[in-house]
Write a structure and sequence with these properties.
It is a single chain. This protein has 280 residues and is mostly helical. Among the domains are: 95 residues, no CATH class; 98 residues, Cytochrome c-like domain (Cytochrome Bc1 Complex, Chain D, domain 2, Orthogonal Bundle), CATH 1.10.760.10. The protein is 49% helix and 0% strand. It has twelve helices and no strands. α5 packs across α6, α9 crosses α10 and α10 crosses α12. It is elongated.
């Protein structure tokens, strides 16, 4: 065989081998793309989880369960099946999340359940609107929230009270309160979200020369601008919980829901007050 024939044969074999390799690579390309998408989604979920933990859990709960009276649940069947219909959004839910996180929300869409009148119901988080997050971070947050879709429980039904509702009579005699339970309720009922972890409401802890709520409650009722009807620190705290519009602390507007008199039991309220009185 001449050298030319050998070179032709080798060239043909190389072409066939290269073609076979390209064909094999092409056949497996979809699988590789699918694996890449899964890896990218996992990375986005991981990044979004960290962002949610750092920025969102104070209002929306550690696992997106929401905080009663403060912010709605996100890890919730209603959110994934009905939310876009409720607000009239015509795009995808993921894009709705991105838009809401980026631009914030000026007013609550359910003010009877969650605050928002007078102050933004949710701040803007995008750098484009003065917030701290990049667009890719907001997209990661949305990916993380969407990850709850397949397992989201139904949280729309409020749990039944375990005892009689406390009502709105601030002169009533409450049962003895338990401080530890009150501290837990302060988180689960959304109090800490406004009064501890954010400045949506007057801070409970001492700050700027002001004593904590445990001491401040007794002095508040003696101030000339006090508009409520409480005569003791306990009554003032009860009034603040069940009749939030009775007296507004200067510099703040009504943010608390007005239904705690119906959604808290007398014992829960007593526990909350007992805990608040320890915050000096």
């Amino acid at each position: 065989m001449s050298r030319i024939n050998v070179e032709i044969l080798l060239g043909t074999l190389i072409v066939l081998l290269t073609g076979g390799m390209l064909l094999a690579y092409g056949i497996n390309e979809q699988a590789r793309m699918d694996e890449y998408k899964v890896a990218q989604a996992a990375s986005a979920i991981e990044a979004g989880a960290a962002l949610f933990d750092n920025n969102c859990r104070g209002c929306h709960g550690v696992q997106g369960e929401g905080v009663v009276g403060l912010c709605p649940p996100l890890n919730d069947r209603f959110f994934f099946t009905e939310r876009v219909k409720e607000v009239g959004w015509t795009g995808t839910l993921e894009d709705y999340i991105v838009s809401t996180v980026a631009g914030g929300r000026l007013a609550s869409t359910r003010p009877e359940l969650y605050p928002g009148s007078g102050k933004p119901a949710m701040p803007s988080w995008s750098e484009r609107f003065g917030g701290p997050l990049r667009d890719d971070q907001i997209r990661d947050l949305a990916t993380f929230i969407m990850n709850w879709e397949s397992t989201a429980p139904d949280r729309e039904t409020a749990p039944a009270l375990t005892g009689p509702a406390v009502g709105t009579d601030i002169t009533q005699e409450l049962p003895p309160g338990e401080v530890a339970n009150g501290e837990a309720l302060a988180t689960s009922k959304g109090c800490a979200g406004c009064h501890v972890t954010t400045n949506n409401g007057p801070a409970w802890a001492s700050s700027a020369g002001q004593p904590g709520i445990g001491d401040r409650a007794a002095t508040r009722i003696a101030q000339d601008d006090y508009a409520g009807s409480a005569t003791t620190a306990e009554q003032y705290l009860l009034e603040s919980i069940v009749l939030p519009g009775a007296h507004l602390v200067p510099g703040f507007q009504i943010q608390m829901p007005a239904n705690f008199g119906q959604s808290l039991t007398a014992q829960e309220t007593a526990d909350l007050i007992a805990y608040m009185l320890t915050v000096k």
